[in-house]
């Protein structure tokens, strides 16, 4: 007996990184045991920040390969591309009618994007959370595995659904965020959250050499300038990831760092080795999926068919509630 329905999505702006994996994908995989899961490559959302769409198709395929290799099972779960289910665009328009403008302009994520791309503040950026609300509402998901950065959007979505249900009929489902133990992974810059678009990320499919190169670039304790300075593990980004990948040596590494018995370079070598080993089985599974010609396309096509059936039903209920029918 399934406990409910899960929906989540990620933007095809690049391959999946450690932040995506630890913050979201881990839960995507785990929730499959108890929920009907729907995972979406949100290509329409990607358009809000992509000046050049030439990479979209390639990115979509790479992301799906990451998901499959991480353990998302397309026999159990629906794995599809957002634009393959056009009903979402229709629901977006309908929900926009119950969305106050002020709620959109106030969102921290919108303000951040305006700062990041002042020359491309398009309407899609402003409407992003409405489209996201439509995504989740369309599939009547009650549980949404996401990273911490998405919490304001989910709160927003809940409010919109409440308004809709109040004004019309209660046909839409309020949803709850589901976080992992690591809801916010910092980028290698140590300042911003790890993000594809900030290019401060480590891809989970990266080669051992690439992982080593990026780990060596990670910013640690900014106050520790010399090898002989005592370190502060509690502010060190590498140490925060040791908690996951080097749990058995955490105490020891922390103590030696504080006592300046271990330097950041040695510390990074330890972490890089652990990360490379931890991701090795993933890389193998990914290569096996990638070697199957047409497999990803097949999964996406079959999933889109299943997704459209659910979407059509919800959209019908929404239109009926709004007296459009
Ligand atoms: P972009 O920079 O294009 O927005 P992104 O790296 O932020 O890409 P998304 O596709 O926006 O990745 O997010 C996919 C999922 O991964 C979301 O649930 C998001 O909350 C989660 N996530 C993204 N970055 C992190 C992070 N650094 N730590 C934890 N979770 C994250
Ligand atoms: Mg993002």
3D architecture notes:
The protein has 2 domains: 5-184 and 293-321, HUPs (Rossmann fold, 3-Layer(aba) Sandwich); 208-287, Orthogonal Bundle (Tyrosyl-Transfer RNA Synthetase), CATH 1.10.240.10. α1 links the parallel β1 and β2. With 325 residues, it is mainly α. It is 53% helix and 7% strand.
Keywords:
binds magnesium ion; globular; binds adenosine-5'-triphosphate; 7% strand; 2 domains; Tyrosyl-Transfer RNA Synthetase; Rossmann fold; 3-stranded parallel beta sheet; mainly alpha; 13 helices
Major beta sheet summary: 3 strands, parallel
Describe the strand arrangement of the main beta sheet, using strand numbers.
Answer: 1-2-3
Strand content: 5-15%
CATH homologous superfamily grouping of the largest domain: HUPs
Query: By helix and strand content, what is the structural category?
Result: mainly alpha
Q: What is the name of the CATH architecture of the largest domain? A: 3-Layer(aba) Sandwich
CATH topology descriptor of the largest domain: Rossmann fold
Amount of helix = 40-55%
Number of structural domains: 2
The CATH class of the largest domain: Alpha Beta
Cα-atom radius of gyration? 21 Å
- Give the oligomeric state: single chain
Total strands: the figure is: 5
- The poorly predicted ranges are none
Supply the number of helical segments: 13
Overall residue-averaged pLDDT value: 96
* Element pattern in H and E: EHEHHEHHHHEHEHHHHH
